[in-house]
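in:
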């Protein structure tokens, strides 16, 4: 087993926003700090700037840092692993161009045999380079819809912490990048080394479930003011056996029209919307109360504890008990609907 070299892309000529430093620091911490008692030699870490040999001449702006790096984009092709921690926000939110030369440098690195990795919004760079075409990939759940829309050839999965597709790997945002980096260590140096490294970083070696457990299920994709009152009423009465016909009647619409308008507003069917609201209700109750699972199933409208567990595992990716442990009670009891 060999650690090899890791090249991390740093978009330094436009400044690294302070909120992106977390993703940048993850590979630096995992691969940059020698661990001679675990593996010797450890990884050879290289920070590769997108300017000319680390030419960070422009200002970073009020919320960022300008960085100079000893390596440039040409050095990506010589690395065993290439990691793109993130891309600038305008590239994600507004479709602004990526730093000049980055996509071509990523293609050359891949053609040279490098293992390609993205953390969080770094997936947009791999997608722009065509390296995710036909592959399953992920990113932070807040950006996966944009990723899927902009790059339809990518099979985007917003439910997982990371995707290992062999020579191309992608992760969700923030701490999921740490999960993926530890996975790379596990692949390269074995479970023992990865587990010991995780202990030193005071993090789990492997977290249960995926990022689906962090998604806010209650947020609609769009808004329809005409439906707002009936949807608010439905959220307040989730413990009742609601049907599409019930909601349509309350909205003074035919079931077919209600179905069409709700799907346009939320991007999902009425039954799926109801299920998502019930699961969101169950999440809130698990986070904010000490109620038993049986009672939570009843109050959320999911019925029995077994039915709650079934849907929770399928949609959220972890059991209600695991979810409660991951999100311990920190808020006062929320009002119970009825």
């Amino acid at each position: 087993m060999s650690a090899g070299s890791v090249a991390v892309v740093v978009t330094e000529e436009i400044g690294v926003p302070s909120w992106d430093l977390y993703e940048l620091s993850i590979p630096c911490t995992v691969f940059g700090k020698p661990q001679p008692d675990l593996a010797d030699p450890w990884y050879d870490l290289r920070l590769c700037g997108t300017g000319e040999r680390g030419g960070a001449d422009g200002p970073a702006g009020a919320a960022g840092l300008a960085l100079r790096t000893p390596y440039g984009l040409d050095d990506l092709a010589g690395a065993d692993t290439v990691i793109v921690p993130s891309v600038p926000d305008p590239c994600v939110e507004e479709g602004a161009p990526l730093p000049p030369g980055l996509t071509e440098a990523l293609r050359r690195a891949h053609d040279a045999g490098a293992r390609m990795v993205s953390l969080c919004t770094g997936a947009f760079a791999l997608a722009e380079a065509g390296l995710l075409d036909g592959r399953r990939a992920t990113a932070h759940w807040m950006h996966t819809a944009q990723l899927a829309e902009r790059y339809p050839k990518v099979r985007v999965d917003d439910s997982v912490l990371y995707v290992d597709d062999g020579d191309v790997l992608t992760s969700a945002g923030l701490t999921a990048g740490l999960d993926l980096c530890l996975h790379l260590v596990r692949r390269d140096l074995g479970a023992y080394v990865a587990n010991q490294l995780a202990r030193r970083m005071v993090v789990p070696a492997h977290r249960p479930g995926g990022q689906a457990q962090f998604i806010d299920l209650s947020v609609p994709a769009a808004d329809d003011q005409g439906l707002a009152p009936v949807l608010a009423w439905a959220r307040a009465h989730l413990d009742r056996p609601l049907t599409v016909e019930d909601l349509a009647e309350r909205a003074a619409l035919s079931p077919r029209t209600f179905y069409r308008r709700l799907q346009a507003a939320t991007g999902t069917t009425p039954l799926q919307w109801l299920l998502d609201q019930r699961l969101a209700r169950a999440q809130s109750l698990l986070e904010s109360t000490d109620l038993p699972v049986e009672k939570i199933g009843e109050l959320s409208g999911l019925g029995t504890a077994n039915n709650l567990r079934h849907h929770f595992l399928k949609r959220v990716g972890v059991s209600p008990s695991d979810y409660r442990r991951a999100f311990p009670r920190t808020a006062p009891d929320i009002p119970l609907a009825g």
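note: The mean pLDDT is 83.
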